[in-house]
Amino acid sequence: MKNKLLTFAIVAMMSCISGVVRAQNRTVTGKITNEQGTPLVATIAPKTTSNVATSSDESGLYSLSVPETVDSLIVNSIGYMTKTVVIRNNVADVQLQVDGNYNLDEVVVIGYGTQRKGDLTAPVATVNMENALKRTVSTPMDALQGAVTGVQIISSGAPGTTPTVRIRGVGSFNNESPLYVVDGMFMDNIDFLNPNDIADMSVLKDASGAAIYGVRAANGVIIVTTKRGSLNMKTKVTYNGYAGLHTPTNVLKMASGQQYADYAIAVGNKNIVDNSVSKFGGQDGRPTTNTDWYGELLRSNALIHNHNLDVQGGSEKISYSFGINYLDQDGIMDTENYHRKYNIRSQTEARVASWLKIGFTAHLNNFNAFAPNNAAFRQAYFASPLYPSYDPSLELADPIKFGSSTTLGMPSGFWFNNPLATAYYNHNETKGFQVLPSAYVEAEFWKKKLTFRSQLSQRYQSTHNIQYTPVYYIDNDQRSQRSYLRSAQARNNNYILDNLLTYRDETGKHHWSVLLGQSTREERWRETWVSANDVPQSEEFWYVGQGAQGTGSATGYGEGGFRNAGISFFTRGTYDFDNKYLLTATFRADGSSKYQTKWGYFPSLGIGWVLSREKFMENQSLFDLLKLRGSWGLLGNDGIQPNAGYAIVNSGNNFSGIFGSVGENNGVRVPGYRVGRFFTQVRWEVVEEWDAGLDFALLNNRLNGTVDYYYRKTKDLAFSRPIPFMWDRVYGNWGSVANSGWEIGLDWKDQVGQLDYNIGANITTLKNKVTDIGALANIMNGFPEWSAEFPARIEANQPINYYYGYEVAGVYQNTAEINSDPIATRYNQENPNSPILPGYLRYKDQNENGELDEADRINLGNYLPKLTYGFNVGLNYKNFDFSVAFQGVAGNKIHNLNRAMRRKYPQMNADAAFMEGLWNGEGSSNTYPSAAGSVAAWNLQASSFFVENGAYLRIQNMQLGYNFRVRESIPVRIFATADRPAIFTRYNGFTPEVSGMGFDSNVYPISSTYSLGLNVTF
C-alpha cells in the first residue's frame, strides 16, 4: 500500500513539475530574410536543445515555443550561412548571408548514396521539384520536359500515357528508355508516382555516374527519392491541389466540304460529290454537307483535378512521412477515355540505438485507365466531309445511326470507316494496383566512419485488362457480327536485396570513402488471357469460364511470361585533397541469367579540379566556383533479346512441297517443317562514354552554370540480319552507334528593390551516327506496313533511321520545263499513258546522269533533334510570384505519313494547308503538286515533300501565385496555371511531338490545361 502511495505521489509531483515547465515556455516569433530583405524558408531551433524545431513559411515568418531558459536560436537555410541569433522580447528577426560554399556543400543523390556537389566528378543533374510541381501533368517525367540538359521528353496527349524519355540520344535498336530507381527499387517507368510524392530527383547522364548500375545503365539512370520526415521536426500538414480543364490546342484544320468537293472533281471522283448532293443536299457540284470530323471527335473541355495531402514530422528518435494523393484526368476525345489513380505513401525511420536505425517505406498505387481507340484520329484525316457523322436514314444501322462513307461510294476498308463509330464502339479498360515495400537496417559500427546498410525492396503489380466489342452494324465494312471479349491478367513480382558497406575517413586535408556493395535481384512477369465470342453487352457477364455467358473462341487462351535473375558486386572509391583535387572510381561486375555470357564488367573513372580553391584564385572577385571535370566509363544494356537457346521449328509454304499427294489432294501443298540451324551467342550491348565538364558560379553566386561535352559509343549493337541465299535471319551483336554533343545550363538570380527574379536556360546538341552494321550495306526500316513505300534507313556513317528518298527541287510549271528536263523526258518516253504533266513534282538529279535512279535517293533527315532547349523566368514581388517556362527542339524531321497515304487511297481528304497550296496554274506554287498530280504515282514516291521540319517552340507553363496567411501559423498560396497554352511550329499536324521514328500517322492531340490551385500548410 505504501509503495502504491509513493508511486502516486511521485507521478503527481512529476505532473506538477511538467505543468510548471510547460507554463514557463514562451513563444518566439520572427521573420527570416536575406540581405536584400527577401523572405526565406529556413529551419529554426533552440541553441541548447534539439527537442523542438520549426520552419519559416514562404513569407519568412515563424513561431516557436521554447523554454524560458533558451536565450538564442540557430537558423539555417539552404544556400545561406548558418546564424545564431539572440532572442529579445520574444522576437528574433534574422537576416542570413549567402554562403559562398553553397555550390560545393549541396548534397546530391547518386547511386547507392549521396555526395557533396563539390565532390562530384560526373555531370549529375538535379531536378528543381518546386518548378516541376507547377505543371498540371499526370506523370512526373512530363513535368521535366525542357528542364534538364541532355534529356529529351516526348509527351503524348492521351491521359496516363507514358512519355518517351531519351538521355543523350539513341544508342540501341532495341531499348532507349532509362533505368528508374525509386527508393532503391528498379522500375521501367515512374508513371505511378504523383509528382507531389517526390523529394529529390537526380539524372545520371554519363558513364562515371551511372556505371554503378552496370548492365541496366546504358540509357542513363533517374534516381527518385520520395518525401521523408526528419528528427525533431514539428508535425507539418500540407495540402496541395488543383482543378482545371484540358482544351484541344493546335487542332489540325481539315479541308471543308466545298474544298474537298472541288478536289474530288479535279482528280476524277465526281461520283462522290454527286452522291453527296443526291443524298444529303446541294446542287451543281456544291454539296451542303460539311462535317468537321476532328470537331466531332474532340471535346471543347475535359476535366483534370489533383489532390495531395502530406504529413511530415519527427521526434527525437523517430521520423515519419505520410502522403495520400488522387489524380483524375479525362481525355479530350469525346468518348470514354480517362486515367484515375490514387497513391498512398508511408515512410518511417527509427533510431533504436545511437549506432542503429531501421526504416520502412511503402507505396501503394491503385489505378483505372480507359484507353481510347487512336485509330479514330487516323480515320478522321481520311474521312470525307461530304457525309454526316449520324445518318437517321440508314435503317440497318444499329444500335446507333452512325453515318456511312458507303453512301458516297467510297472504297471499302478500315481507312474510310466512320471515325466517330470507331471511337464509340471501343472498350479497353485496365485496372490494377502496385505495392512497393522497402525495409532497411543501417548500423554505424565506427562512428561517422564505418556503416553497413542492408535493404530489401520489392515490387508487386497486378493488372486486369478488359477489351470488349459489342454487336453493331454501320455498313458491310464497319460492323461486328459477334461480340468479342478478351480478359487478360498480368503480374509483376520483382525484388532487390542490397548490402552496402561504407567507410569514410579523413586525415588533415585528405578525405576518402570506399563503398563495397552486393546486390541480388529477380524479375518475374506472367500474363494469362482468355477470350470469347457472343458475350452479352452487360458488364456483369464479362467473364469466361465454365457456365459463363458466351462461347469461347478457337484461340481463347494463352499465356506468356519471363523470369530473370541477377547478382552483382560493385565498389566505389572517392578521394579528395583539400576539397580541391577530386577522384572517383567505380567498378561493377554483373551476372545475369539472360545470356550465355554470364558476366559483364563495368568500370568508370572520374577526376575533378576545383580551381577556385587554388591560391592563384584568392584575389579574384569574379568566380565563386570554378571546377573542371573529366570522366570515362563503360555501361551495359540488357534490354535486348536474350539467347534463343533452343531449336526453332519453321513451318508454312516456304518450307513445304508436294510429297506424294494423291486423290483429291493431288497437287496440293502438304505442310512441311524445318528446324532452324543457326544460333548466335548474344550478349548485352556495351556503351563506352567520355565526358568533359566545367562547373562555375560568378558574381556572388548570382550566375551559376555548367558546360559538358560528351561522346558515347554503343558497341555490340544487337539486331537481326538476313543470311545470304536463305529465308532465315539471325540475331546477334553486329554493330555500333555513336552519340556526341554539348550540354550548357545557366541560371541567374538577383534582386531589384523588392523584386526577386531568376532566369534559367539550357541547351543540348546531339550528333547521332551509326558507325558499323557488320557486313551489311544498309538496313531498311520504317513504319509498319509502309516501310517499303516510305523507308527509314540504317547505314554506316549516317544518323540512325534516316528518311530515305528523293529530294524535291520544285514543281514543273509548264511543258517547256518538262521537255528540257532529261529525267522527265525519259520518263514520258517510257510511260506514255501516264506522263509527267505541269504541276508535277520535280526531283533533283543528284548524280546528274539524266535518270531518276537509286543513286538519287538521299538522306532526308531523321527524327532526332540536333538541338533541344528550354528557358524560364521567375519573379517574386511582395506576396506575388509569377513564372513562365519555354521548351523546344530544332534540327529534327517528321515524316507526314498522313499525306503520304494518298499513294494507296486517292479518295481521302487532306488538311486545309495541303488543299489550299495545290498548284493550279503556272507560277501558283513551286511546293505543292496539282490536284491531279497529287494522286499520280510519280508524285507519291518517298521524297522530301512528305518530310517536314519538326522544330517547335512551346510555352510550356505559366503560373501566377499569391501568398497570404489565414493565421500567423497557416500560410496559404493560391495559384492559376496555364500548361502548354501555345506552340509555334510549321509542321502540318496536330503536334510535332511524334514518338518512335517520327512517322506521323495522326497521334492523339496534345492539349492545353488551365487550372486553379491551392496550397496550405498547418
UniProtKB/TrEMBL annotation:
Its main location: membrane. InterPro entries: Beta-barrel_TonB_sf, CarboxyPept-like_regulatory, Plug_dom, Plug_dom_sf, TonB-dep_OMP_SusC/RagA, TonB-dep_OMP_SusC/RagA_CS, TonB-dep_rcpt-like. It is a multi-pass membrane protein. The keyword Chaperone does not apply. Transmembrane segments: none annotated. It is found in: Cell outer membrane. Residues 118-221 form the TonB-dependent receptor plug domain. GO terms for cellular component: cell outer membrane. Belongs to the TonB-dependent receptor family. NCBIfam families: OMP_RagA_SusC, SusC_RagA_signa. This is TonB-dependent receptor. It comes from Sphingobacterium alkalisoli.
